[in-house]
Design goal:
The protein is 0% helix and 49% strand. It has 126 residues and is mainly beta. The strands form two sheets. Strands 2, 4, 5, 6, 9, 10 and 11 form a seven-stranded mixed beta sheet that branches. A four-stranded antiparallel beta sheet has the order 1-3-8-7, with no helix packed on it.
């Protein structure tokens, strides 16, 4: 079965950077739209960014535009989220997810993703 494993979270000061990685095994990674979502305590799971199967298309939620970059390496079955200029409000558990759907507005919804990782904690101190 498909397994999704995130890594790279941690504690960082405001203004700092982190790079999250997500490795997918057991499926056809090169065909998946890949997404990053985040969930703060007591909040819903929110869309952060996603990337098309080829890497040619990306989309970000407004609050991270210009600060975060999503990318993928299909040879390594890995998707990345480079996070710069981190803010305390970025603190959350970050989840990686895979979808068989094509990049679209609809794929900003968690319900469109069939495979999820366990999440990695990102904490930004002020």
């Amino acid at each position: 079965q498909v397994q999704v494993v995130e890594s790279g979270g941690g504690l960082v000061q405001a203004g700092g950077s982190l790079r999250l990685s997500c490795v997918v095994s057991g499926g056809t990674f090169h065909t998946y739209t890949m997404g990053w979502f985040r969930q703060a305590p007591g909040k819903e799971r929110d869309f952060v960014a996603h990337i098309s199967w080829s890497g040619g298309g990306t989309y970000y939620t407004d609050s991270v535009k210009g600060r975060f970059t999503i990318s993928r390496d299909n040879a390594k079955n890995t998707v990345y989220l480079q996070m710069n200029s981190l803010k305390p409000e970025d603190t959350a558990v970050y989840f990686c997810a895979a979808s068989s759907g094509l990049l679209s507005i609809a794929l900003r919804s968690p319900s469109k993703y069939g495979y999820w990782g366990q999440g990695t904690q990102v904490t930004v101190s002020s």
